[in-house]
Write a structure and sequence with these properties.
The protein is mainly alpha-helical and 377 residues long. It has 11 helices and no strands. The protein folds into 2 domains: 41-191, no CATH class; 195-358. The longest helix is centred in the first third of the chain and has 50 residues, at 71-120. The radius of gyration is 28 Å and the shape is globular.
């Protein structure tokens, strides 16, 4: 007589939890190894990321020019226009700073005196000369640590060379991406088995749509932020409007964090040049710009391309900053958005139906025919 099988003593919930736990641990290990490898290959990884950014921004312009010109000439013309625009903005910023430097120096000295007078009163009661003596203290520090500062500057020169190399590599890659990116993608797909190519093609196109949409959207949001900041600073009479506007545009490329940092710098300039009242108005501008960016610009501009909750955005930026500093904060959101888009495409996409549709959509499409067949039967 056969003995009855022994009952399973492990609860079903615990088995399910353990299954999810080891899968999540494996994903975490893969992510850690990926971050470690990318940290060792920082220069080519950053260059590739910049090349993808340049490609996503210039691709519509190149396609427009390629409709009337040969594609190599269209790529060359697009790069020349980009260099002209960026170089013109930097030259204008340098000219503005040079023109306002003498007047700004006197305003800053007077502003430092006002800040020092304000700090010596209630409620802080700091000793006199706390702020006005800072330039002299900085000079003493530089003279006392000249050798260490010189060695730091020499090591920084090496970083500048790495930066120039990375920019050159990014431009080199973006030229080929713009000229023959479709052929490169087709070649990459044919390196995989035939049965995996449809899913790979869907995933790659979903990733590119998410990345390009995020890049163009965040540039548009940064431009709108910069225009709002420029108008507000000009109305308040804060000096160096153009450099602060450019700083706002660059800083706004880091979601949720960059814009307040740039406006804090603008508040310091306003405090030194125009006094505490204008500085408080600039600080209030931080709140206003943050509300406009978080509740209007991001939902309208980025909502169609990056379908992530603001909490997910904040956690992505924080995690990227912890793992890789400022560079990680910049890269975190596009990486997470691309991963989310690819996951959704592979989860929802099925062979034999259009990409991006769900089983419910397909059922609604065939339901009338099924009902007609049922009535005939």
């Amino acid at each position: 007589m056969r003995r009855p099988a022994r009952e399973e003593r492990v609860p079903a919930g615990l088995r399910t939890t353990a299954g999810y736990a080891w899968r999540l641990a494996l994903l975490g290990l893969v992510g850690y190894l990926a971050v470690t490898v990318l940290s060792l290959l920082e220069l080519p990884a950053v260059a590739l990321f910049l090349a993808l950014v340049v490609t996503s921004v210039l691709r519509p312009f190149v396609d427009l020019l390629a409709s009337a010109l040969p594609r190599p000439l269209a790529v060359l013309l697009a790069f020349l226009c980009t260099v002209a625009v960026v170089g013109g903005v930097l030259a204008l910023v340098g000219t503005t700073v040079a023109d306002e430097w003498s007047r700004l120096g006197s305003e800053l000295r007077g502003g430092l005196g006002r800040i020092d007078h304000w700090l010596t009163g209630a409620p802080l009661h700091l000793p006199p000369g706390t702020v006005t003596a800072l330039p002299a203290r900085v000079g003493e520090f530089v003279s006392a640590h000249r050798s260490s500062l010189l060695s730091t500057a020499i090591s920084g020169a090496g970083r500048v060379v790495e930066l120039a190399t990375g920019l050159a590599l990014a431009v080199f890659c973006s030229v080929f991406f713009l000229h023959s990116g479709d052929r490169m993608w087709s070649w990459a797909q044919h390196q995989f088995p035939a049965r995996a190519r449809p899913a790979l093609d869907r995933a790659g196109r979903a990733a590119w749509r998410a990345f390009a949409g995020y890049t163009r959207g965040v540039l548009l949001v940064a431009a709108i932020n910069a225009v709002l900041v420029a108008v507000a600073l000009a109305v308040l009479g804060v000096p160096l409007v153009l450099p602060l506007t450019v700083l706002e545009f660059v800083a706004a490329l880091v979601p949720l964090v960059g814009s307040p940092v740039a406006l804090a710098v603008a508040a310091l300039v306003a405090l030194a040049a125009r006094g505490p009242v204008v500085a408080l108005l600039v600080l209030a501008l931080i709140v206003v710009i943050g509300q406009i960016e978080g509740h209007l610009l991001h939902p309208l501009v980025l909502g169609w391309s990056v379908r992530l909750h603001p909490v997910a955005l904040a956690l992505s930026v924080t995690g990227g900053a912890v793992l890789a500093g400022v560079l990680g904060a910049v890269v975190a959101v596009p990486v997470v958005s691309v991963a989310w888009a690819v996951t959704g495409e592979l989860r929802d996409g099925r062979p034999g139906r259009p990409s991006g549709t769900t089983p419910g959509d397909q059922q609604r499409r065939i339901a009338p025919g099924v009902r007609r067949s049922a009535r005939v039967g």
